[in-house]
Amino acid sequence: MGTRTRIVCGVVAIGLALTACSAGAGGSAQQSGGGAQGTDTVTVAFRTPNWILPISAPGFTQGENEIFSTALYRKLYSYKLDGSSPDNVDPERSLAEPPAVSDGGKTLTITLKDNTWSDGKPITTKDVQFWWDLVTANKDKWASYKPGGFPDNIDSFKVKDDKTFSLTTKKAYNAAWFVGNQLNRIVPLPQHAWDKGDAKKTFEELTAASKDPKSYATNPLWKTNSGPWKLQSYVPSGEVVLAKQDTYSGTDKPKLNKIVLRPFTGDDAEFNVLRAGQIDYGYIPPANLSQKAYLESKGYKVAPWYGWSITYLQLNFNNPRTGVLFKQPYLRQALQMLIDQPTISKVIWSGMAAPTCGPVPAKQGSPAGQGCAYPFDPAKAKQLLESHGWKVTPDGQTTCADPALCGEGIAKDTPLSFTVTSQSGFAATTKMFAEIKSTMAKVGVQLTIKEVPDSVAVTPACKAEESKCDWDMSFFGSQGSWYYPAFASGERLFQTDAPVNLGSYSNPEADELIEKAQFSADAGALQEYNDFLAKDLPVLWMPNPVYQISAYKSGLQGVEPQDPMNLMYFQDWSWKS
Amino acid sequence: MTRYLLTRLGQALVIVILVTLITFVILHLLPGGAARAILGKEATLQQIAAFNHEMGYDRPLWQQYAMYLQRLVQGDLGYSFQLNQSVAEAISQRVPKTMLLSLASTLLAVVVAVPLGVVQAVRRNRWPDYTINGLSLLAYATPIFFMGLMMIILFSQVWPVLPPEAPQGFTLAEVLADPAGLVLPTLTLAILTVAVYSRYIRSSMVDNLNENYVRTARSKGLSEGRVIVGHTLRNGLFPVITLLGMYLPALFSGALVVERLFNYPGMGLLFWQAALKRDYPILLGVTLLISVATVLGALVADVLYAAVDPRVRLKAGRS
User: What global pTM score does this model have?
Assistant: First the structure.
C-alpha cells in the first residue's frame, strides 16, 4: 500500500468511526405528544440556580434562584396581575387567604389555608413565626432588607393560633402596596425540620448549607418542601432536575413527572440546541429573531414574555459637568422628544419592545406609546432648545448662546454633548443607540456611546465631588431596566436617596406623590404619581424590551400566560395527549 | 542537567509570583467595584460594605495581596461569590473537561497534520501540495466561531448525525460516555490546529530534505520511505515540539469560542464570565493556573528537545 492510499484509508476510517459512534445522537427532535425526553418530562433552558434557602442573600437574587426557590418552597402569597383578584393575590397558589385589614389600615390578619409539608406535617403559623424570627435576627444578611423597610416597619407580629397571625405596622400603609410589595417576601419555612432553637445559629447553619451547592440534592435539610417539586439532582453550574412532589398539598398539582433545567454557556449554544429540537422550552436570542419562522416550522411556538417592567436611560443629576443641564426640565423634555420610541420598538426590536411612557408599566395589550407626554418630535425639540437660548447647529455642536435663558449654572458656549454608558453584548441596544445618536446629532446634540459589560457597576449613585461621578447617562435595560413587584410604586427608584435612584433625581413633589401611593388608601394615588413623573422625566423613557422571546414545543400546554413578574410555574405545564 | 532544571524551576516560581502580582494589581484598578457587579443595582450601601468586608476588599491592596499569598501557600484559592463555590472546586470541575477537549483536538491535529505536512514536502510544488496548502489556508483564515457554526448546521441540522452540543455530564466519565457529543467541538478545534501544524511540518521537512544527511542516506541505498520517516521526519518534528510546549497553557485555558458555541463549560468560559462579573478570586485562580502551565510548557518543550536532539543533551551535559 502506497503512502497516498494509506492516508485515504485513514481518513475513511476516521469518518466511519465518527459516523458509527454518532448514530442516533442527534436529530431526533420531533416527537409527537412529548418532548426531547419523553412524555412526562420537559427540558428547559435555564441558568443553574445557586441559592436554595428561600431567604435570599445579597448577590443571589437572580431570577433563576427565585423560580427554583418557589418550585420547592411556596411563598405565603403568589400574585397574578390580570386584575381578577383584590390586591393581585392569586387565590389558588397562595398559602393563605387574602389578609383582613383593620385598625385603620395598620393591622393585617392573615389566615393560613390547610396545607402540609412534603413529610405530611401541617403548615402552621409556627412556620411563619420561624421565618419571621430568622429574618428579624439576621436582617443584615437578607437581600430584601432595606433599613426602615420590612421588617423594621412592623410594630408587632402576633400569632393567634395555628392558622392565624397578624402584623401591625408602625404607620398605616396602602393595603395594595403592603400586600404586593411587603407580604410577598414571607415564605413559611419548615420549623420542625430546621429550627435549632437559636435564630442566629440556625440561620448560620442554613446559610452554610446553602453555600454548599454540591450537597443540595443530598442534604436532608432541603428535603422538607412545601412546593410542587422536589430536587432530584443538582450539578453545580450544570443540570438541575426537579421531580414531582407526590405529597404536594396545593391544588395546582404538577402534571409532569420531571423538569430538567439545562444551563447554556451562551445564547449561541442555546439557540443551536433549540434549532436541533433538543430542548422543549428555550428562548430566541433577539439577534436571531429572523429565524422565528424556521423555528415555527420545526414545531415551536414563539411567545414573547412581557415583563411588569419599565426601561429608561438614567441621567446623572449629580455629574459636576452635565448635572446642571439635566436639572433643566425643558432640556430633559427636548432630549425625550429626540427618542423615537415607536419606531425603535418596531424596527430595531422587531416589535419585541414597546414604548415606556411613565414609571408605571402599561398593562399588557394596551396601545403602545399612545399618550406619552413627550412623543418623538425633533422640530419641537429644536424649537424648545432655541427658545431657551441655545444656538442649535444641526450636525454640528449645539451650544448655549444666552446663559440667562439656558438656566442656572449653565455657562455660555456650554456644549450639549453627553456620554452614554451602555451594555455590550446586545445587538439591538447597540443599534438603538446608533439611531438615537444620529437623531440627536441632527439638532447638534452629541452623544458618545461607551459600551461596557456591566453598566450598572460603573455608574453608581454618587455625590458631585466623587471621582466616580463622571458618568452622564447610563443604560442597563436591554432586558428591561426595572421589574416591579405587584404594586408598581416608585419608592425604590425615584424617591430622593432611594436605593436604586442611581442618577440622584430629587423632586419634593415627586417624593410626596410616592409617599402618597405607598401610604394613602386613595386608589388614584398611583395614577397621580405616574402622571407626574411621566411629565417630569426623572429619567429618559426608552423602549421596554420583552423579558425574553420564549420558544416552546407546540405540544406543551400551560406555558402561557407567562408570569409578568418573571416566575415560572412548571406545575401548570403538560404535554398534549 | 539537575542544576539546569532547578535553575529553571526557580525562575519559573519568580515568574508565577510576578504574574499573580501584576494580575492582582490590574484587576483591582478596574473601574467599578466587584461588590456592585456581583450584588447588582439593588444592593444597599450596608450590603456593599458587608460584602467588601467579607471578601477583604476593604483592606489596603498590599494587605489583600499578602492575605491572598498566605491562603495560596495553604492551598486555598479562595471562594467565588458569583458561583457560590470554592475556586478550587470550580476549576477542578472544569479543567478535566477542558483538557479532554484540548488533548483530543491536539492529538487529532497532530495525527492528521504530520502526514499532510510530509506529503506536502515530498510532493512539493505539485498538485497535492497546492491542494493541501489551499485548504490549510482556507481553514486557517476561517474564524473559529464560523467554522463551529457551519459544523453545527451541517452535521446536526442539515444532516442530523451529531448532537449540536458537547456532552453535558458532570464527571469526565459521564462526558466520555457520550463520545458523539465530542466530535464536533473536537473537529472544530482540530481543523484550525491542523492548518497551523501542517504548514510548520512542511517547511521544516523541505529544509531537512535538502540537507546533506538525506543525500547520504539515499546514496547508501535506503528506501525513500525510510529516508523520509526514519531520518527526515524525526528532525522535521522540532517545530511541532516547540508548538506543543507553547500549547500546554491552552490545555488549561480552554477555547472560549468553542466552549460557548458547544455549551461546554470549560476554563475559557469560566475566565470570561468571571471577567464580566469582576469575580476576582476566579480570575486570580485561573491566571495562576495558566501561568504555571505556561512556565511548565516551556520547560517540558526544552526537556523534549533534549530527548529528540542529542546535541541539546550534550550541551546541557557539558554545562
Answer: 0.85
